[in-house]
Amino acid sequence: MQVEMTQSFAHTASCCHSFIGSFLWLIPALPIVASGVIALLKQPKRKTSAALAIGSLGISLILSLIAFAHVLGDWTRGMSTREIAGITWLQVGASNVDLGWVLDPLSAVMLVMVTFVGLLIFIYSVGYMSHDQNFTRFFCFLSLFAGAMLGVVISNSLLLLFMCWELVGLTSYLLIGFWYHKPSAAAAAKKAFLTTRVGDIFFLLGMVWLFAETNTLLFYNSGAGSIEPLALTAMLGQHAVFGLSFATVIGLLIFAGAAGKSGQFPLHVWLPDAMEGPTPVSALIHAATMVAAGVYLIARVYPLMAAGLPVGAVGLGSTPALITVTWVGAFTAVFAALIAVGQNDIKRILAYSTVSQLGYMMAGLGMGGVAVGMFHLITHAFFKALLFMGAGSVIHGCHEEQDIRKMGGLKSDMPLTFITYAAGMMALCGVPIFFSGFWSKDGILDAAQHWSVNKAPFYMLVFGALLTAFYMTRQVAYVFFGHNRGERHAHESPSVMTMPLAILAFFAVLLGFIGTPAWPWFHAFLEGRTATLNMEHLFEPLMLTSALVVFVGLGLGWSLYGNKAVKAEDPDVLEKSVPLFWAWARDRFYMDELYGVTVIAFYTWWARVADWLDRRVWGGLVALVAWAFRLWAQVNRFLDTNVVDGTFDKGCEELYTGGGVLSRVQNGRVSAYLRILALAVVVLAAILIWSSRA
Amino acid sequence: MTPLAGFLLVAALIFSIGLAGALTRRNAILVLIGIELMLNAANLNLIAFWRYGPHPEALTGMMFAIFSIAVAAAEAAVGLGLVIQVHRHAHSTDLDAMNRMKG
């Protein structure tokens, strides 16, 4: 959007002025401590653990709001906050490894979003997981996740961010596999962990390279940080391969990590499978917060990605790193939306929708800058959490049924869920004016329209918007309209579940108004400018296009699926009309199968080779050595039994026999003793006589 | 044959009788009597060697003999006491029955 280019604020000095700046670490620390306490509880205490988790996150939310208010206060006074604090973790020779946290508009906004959405989902979980016997464990993991995610948000050090990033990955693994007795859940957890690990390897490489180049991993450090102009200029001067600067290559490596976490093509395969976890987990981790961590990471290292561009020059060309981000994002947005059309599992549709929307965010970052991408991240977090929790409510109400073909007519059975779900659905589709998704998506489309490099992403994203409206209409028509195709009667969820839905629905609608083109408050806040109300930009020609696209999508979806008396076993409308496309979309464009015959087949082969080497070559060597030792042991044993023991045993035997012979003399008969005595005297006398003779 | 040789011959005879008695008899009292005979044969020898030795005026042999008789009396007292105890214990004075202390 064509925003007024007002003067950016001068940054405040990078030191800790405020109380909240110095104690920002408390925000992630509290949930982590709560998680530890829950883990150490003697017996699983449901109420205590839930209270601990919710209480600690509640305090974190209050602290986040204080931090946000502090940043907001600075902003209204015309200052852009950037307060850093930290500790030296390691000292290796001359270089330090520092860990630190930063309070700036970006982290403040993210903190409030994560704690707020997280808190609502925690409360919702109390209802959703009430029948689960591992309730305590669930809250332990959830709390640990929240702490780790908040750690990612406040990090001022790439290393601290990476640590929390991996913790987030771990808790994601634990929570996807929460029902580990289901083989599919265990497999999904493994898949998620391994797939994100592929991206993380590149992330780690980028991090090590960045440290080698700049000798620090702090983002901001009063001019000496790794993404501040001094370091960036140095890195731009050096070229790796294909004329790419070090900054670009490091940026791309970090983006690979972000793509893994945020489910960007081709590492998106784990995210839909991650829906095997409990629904609150899907809502919190795999829709609202964790998958947004990748987008947040790119926003955090944005100066690195955009190194070489003049500051604030949106639409004036781009860097190779940002162009890559844009293309990957735009492709993912369309690709995942196409798959979402062909899914029948209520959570899988939302999962592919999440992948698609994350693509939008990435494309927004690539083309429009931090504010555009982050705005969609924030609005998406609210309405997607709402949609997932609504889906959870539906699943709960339909007795653990997830197939949308076996639902239907829930509009009257679950009115509160229906209303809130509809609000989320319209926000996701981008229904004009009244829903947040419209404004944030419009920002991205606007950036794409003015992108000077290529116009293709714009058309891709518009097509993606059409598909989004279409598949969401299909889902809502299947779930809430028509007649009930399930075997059992559905019931509305308890208020502990519907209340968070209502609150989220409220925000899903309202949040859009902080980032409209007429009053781009959010963008101004993040970028450190003053927000001006400019009614000229209230309506732009682009809005007509996007509104039209949305309504075409909605209309198309309704005409195909709305109020049709379908049976659960009936083939899909699309399956009848375009069977080839349907098959590809239903089978997720055979991506899993492709990986199965390439990467996994290669690893299986490699594992066989390694196994063969292990058994035949290394195992043979080990067996040879073992055999030699056994031979030596046999020789030793022979010597021992026959020489050493033999001598000793023989001696003992002789002594025993001798003792036996002598003991016969001691027969206890006095007369015998006397005889011996007499004999001895005779012998003695004979000896005496004989010797005196000689 | 000198008178000394006669005495020694008689003493050797008595000793042999005592030894034979001590070795062949199974009754404890008879064995004790045999031992007494042997002791007295030794006493007879002592007296004979003294009487026919180079210093018959010193009463050395007599002293030995009296000592020996005193020891023999003590021995007989102890021996008879033991025999009485054995008899009370085993109701017999048969030495072959007294074999409980063999090695």
Poorly predicted ranges of chain A: 1-8, 10-16
> Most extensive chain contact?
A-B, 11 and 15 residues
- What topology, given as strand order, has the largest sheet of chain A? 1-2
Fraction of residues in H or I helices of chain A: 55-70%
Instruction: Characterize the largest beta sheet of chain A: strand count, sense, and whether it forms a barrel.
Output: 2 strands, antiparallel
Give an account of the 3D structure:
The complex is a heterodimer of chains A (694) and B (103). By secondary structure, chain A is mainly alpha-helical. Chain A is 70% helix and 3% strand. Chain A has a two-stranded antiparallel ribbon with strand order 1-2. In chain A, helix 9 packs parallel to helix 14. Chain A is elongated. The model of chain B has no long low-confidence stretch (mean pLDDT 87). Chain B has 103 residues and is mainly α. Chain B has a single domain, classed as Helix Hairpins (Orthogonal Bundle), CATH 1.10.287.3510. Chain B contains three helices and no strands. The A-B interface holds A 663, 665-671, 674-675, 678 and B 19, 22-23, 25-26, 28, 31, 95-96, 98-103.
Brief digest:
The complex is a heterodimer of chains A (694) and B (103). With 694 residues, chain A is mostly helical.
Topology readout:
The complex is a heterodimer of chains A (694) and B (103).
Chain A: H1 19-22, H2 26-40, H3 46-76, E1 83-92, E2 95-103, H4 105-128, H5 135-154, H6 158-176, H7 183-214, H8 229-236, H9 246-261, H10 270-273, H11 279-288, H12 290-300, H13 302-305, H14 320-341, H15 346-368, H16 370-397, H17 410-413, H18 415-429, H19 436-449, H20 456-480, H21 495-510, H22 521-527, H23 541-561, H24 573-577, H25 579-586, H26 591-663, H27 670-693
Antiparallel strand pairs in A: 1-2
Helix pairs in contact in A: 2-3, 2-5, 3-4, 3-5, 4-5, 4-11, 4-16, 4-21, 5-6, 6-7, 7-9, 9-12, 9-14, 11-16, 12-15, 12-16, 14-15, 14-20, 14-25, 15-16, 15-19, 15-20, 16-18, 16-19, 16-21, 16-22, 18-20, 18-21, 19-20, 19-23, 20-23
Chain B: H1 3-24, H2 28-51, H3 60-90
Helix pairs in contact in B: 1-2, 2-3
